[in-house]
Sequence to fold (252 residues):
Amino acid sequence: MARMGGKRHLKALVAPRFWPILRKEYKWTVKPSPGPHPIDMSIPLLIIVRDILKYAKTGREARKIISEGHFKVDGRIRKNYKYPVGLMDVVEVVDTGESYRVIPIPKKVLGLQPIEKDEAGYKLCRIENKTTVKGGHIQLNLHDGRNILVRVSDPRNPVEDRFKTLGTVKISIPGQELQDYIPLEKGVIAIISGGRNVGRVGRVANIHRGVRRHRSIVELEDKHGNRFQTSLMYIFPIGREEPLITLPEGAW
Fold:
């Protein structure tokens, strides 16, 4: 990816291609603040409000209504117009009650999927890493920068530790309580978060482990019986028998 400007500014021409902005009309665009998602896998809150949801016509209008606290991300009001909104985040419009989830979209990389109010109370997070902390408890490091502590009653026999890396946990928002766990294994339903198959959904058929994560290949089968492959890095489990999140019509 091309260099994305200095510390505070970002030129529109080098912004991520999936941002719906006018690249040739304006020289500069909004650069996301450092946060839970990298710049190439997030959308600034201002662009979501102005260019996707169309609640403002200009950046000034968008900044004003964001600063007034009309939008929530993952259950918390966000007043920073540069806040990076990324994969599986839930965006809520306080005044109208509308809720959206950020999911992978074919060709567009990331997009907003309308969801029901009850679904806005949780999100799915992929386990990127896990560590043992003081007391023998397990810390799960998730894809959106969260750390969830799993308390273990007996460190010598940690029966509570059923979590494996690259699996997915369902957590409440904003409370961050563990509600469910989907391991990465054959038979689970997964969505592709990157690569040329981004946004496709299928059931895991085979996992071919390599020396490293980026050398591992996963084979999936979609609802029509078509098989396709992607890197293990792009696999995001979303359910066992049925997806736990709302998907675009026809995706599953």
In short: The chain has a mean pLDDT of 93. The helical segments are 45-52, 59-67. The first strand starts at residue 10 and ends at 11.
